[in-house]
Fold these 3 entries.
Entry 1:
Amino acid sequence: MNKIAALLIRFVIPLATLYLAFTYLGTAGGIILTAIYLVIMNLSMIFNNLATRAYRSGDHEKALKRLETALKLGPKNYGIRGAYAWLLLKLGHTEEADVQINQTLSEAAREDIKRPLYVTKALVHWKKGEIDQAITLMEKVIENYKNSNAYGTLGFLYLEKGDLDRALSFNLEAYDFNNTNAVILDNLGCTRLLRGEYEEAREIYEQLMNLRPSFPEAFHNYARVLAHFGELDQALYMCRTALTLSFWNTSTITKEQVENTLKELEEAAEKKASESDQEEEYEEIKETESADI
């Protein structure tokens, strides 16, 4: 009965109205009424597109408001609600994101529609400190939903868990799946770094830098690898670059962590410079003593 009512409201009544408009108002009146009808029926998607434009321009709060409006106009649109939940999570509204993604999953009819939404749900679990639930969910998802986003999400969840053996095995699999995805490369590079496999980590991060990543984790982790090899100037550059990028609720590091790493690198660089100056002074003294003899 509800489906019949929805069909009448969405198609039959509007078509009958347009027919009468063309009949009694003429072509011009019919066209104007048709245009108005199309705008009204697609307002939710119009605001969704406005949200996309705002997001791409960097105005994330405006994008969030546009999505809120789109959702009010199309409350049954699971695509819009899923995007809204993801942006809420990214901007730090974890609890509200949880509410929205749960509602989206309950409204989505088919499993293939739910799979990308499960990724957001897993991230919500992670931010709520429910790392085991997040991993369990993503392990189930990736059985039938193998793409770069799923591989990247589960790969970093293994790292967050501290399971470096599983992280290595899985992130190597992810690398075989897509070795040009920045998140997948960072996951593998970070795994190598945490395992103390610095040569392998360096190789991965050199590859990653060619992709020009836009997230701070890539530069921060590479800075740590370079610092291990004593390349402090380059490590400082990478760390400072990381601080120019945006940090989100979904970032795996905080700005404070990067600032602390930068401070440590600066202290190490100052110590190295001081030791170098002392060595030069010592060599000068030796040369002077030799000349006197």
Entry 2:
Amino acid sequence: MIEPNGPFVRSNDDGTNDSGAERPGFEAVRSAIVSFVRDTVLDANATGVVVAMSGGIDSTLTAMVAVEALGRERVLGLGLPCNKSADRGGTEARNMAEGLGIEFREVHLRPLLDVFEDLVAPAIDPGGDRRAVGNVIARLRMICAYYAANTRSRLVLGTANRSERLLGYFTKHGDGGADLCPIGDLYKTEVCTLAYRMGVPRRIVTKQPTAGLWAGQTDADDLGAPYEVIDPVLRRLVDGDPVEATADAVDTDVDTVRSIAEQYTKTRHKRRMPPTPAIDGSRLDG
């Protein structure tokens, strides 16, 4: 874990930033995030927020920040497991929700996924791999979160951090679908620091990061390196340093840095609105 003392800036959709201001200390970062949640919900005239809770550090910290910003009565936690590994996280999520004093609802998504795999997938493409199925799970969770938000006039809080956003390590229109992302400007290693300082249990802070979409999945395996390696690389790459200079500066092999750079570049579409033809001036009559 590292102390958050790098640049604290809001990131743009393409991963760049627009401020070189020095990051303040822990309390200032915490205050900025809490105020951001409170102000965004107020501006939207929403009654509260919905957080999909997995039992991991990102969603736990997001729920904790939401309670501080809005009060426990205005935060709904959803447990949306779909396999055995997610079931274990669901127990952790339920315990944290009880500790925070927020309303918590749990719905097991396996029956929904079974219907999709039995009826929909074979009619479209029976050869879908586990990554495609994993994306379906993430999108089912998004549907549930927005159903709860719509029925209660609430906003959906995303739980992605800056590392995941820059690498496109989320499902488009799945866990990437949200109304606001409170921890979206913090690298994963910074999330660990903030969570630890805010009182998230150590067992959650030190847990192996995983999306929980299939048994044995870990972020480090999917991304090719742990966040302790990824975050220093991203800090330099996003600022425009070349691959070789970045590798030297962070004492990491060039192939790993190049792989991270390629993932950042090829997932740029995930951080942008869908493109349009940009038709200006003349319009068709008729």
Entry 3:
Amino acid sequence: MKPCAVATALLLACLLAGPLQAATVVRYFQTDARYAYRTELLRLALDKTRATDGPYALRPCHGGGQLATARGLVLVEKGAADVFSLATTAELERRFIPVRIDIMRGILGYRIFLIHRDSVAAFKAVKSLDQLRQQFVAGFGAAWPDLAILQAGGLSVEPVDVYESLFPMLAFKRFDYFPRGINEIWDEQLTWGRRYPQLRVEESLALYYPMTVYFFVSKHNPALAKRLERGLQLVLADGSFRALFLKSHGQAIRQSRLERRRLFRLKNPTLPPGTPDPEPGWWLKQRL
């Protein structure tokens, strides 16, 4: 076939196929290592809906790793970012559209403590929630949804605006402990322990409060919310959601040895009415 005939054929094929669909850009501001699993789940849900909803481009916001949560939420409201994930609250569901599929399967509600090495014996001596309330002060993110849970449970808490500041503050005894999700603490101890070797993972205690974590999008972007819901339903159905969750968190679950810890329970007054209880059956074979 002559070159001109080939070119004509290609042009005709393109015209018959119709215009190319532009990729949907999905921007997120939670970019540090704590959110790696959530970003992969987001990508998985978008992949599963590519055939029905078209191509996408998943992009981190510039400077996202340094953004405080409160600032990131404002970016989503203003249309400068598109999606984030947090434990649901009535306030978040008022401001944003929740995608009502729990992406963390209850794991963030099981908290163990990062402490100073000088405090190991003091924490090991704790036998009741009242002792924890009366004798120790926790450090916690000022804009994190579960700050209100800790405070409502009667714990003494020092709110801190910047996540990265919590580790040196604990190392220099500005507070006594930092409650972390069992999926978070081991990487944090490894990373921050290099700089602050006095940090330790406490071995005898745990907190539990029900936490349901959703993806949220702007009120102005219901199409993205619907796409993410469809994608998450698809990855639930084909097992890839569960496989990613266990691959990402299995080692941390084993390290945490929840069955050997004294567990203190708190209520969660921030949950919107009707929020279903988390379903930890993928990873917690017997409720503690």
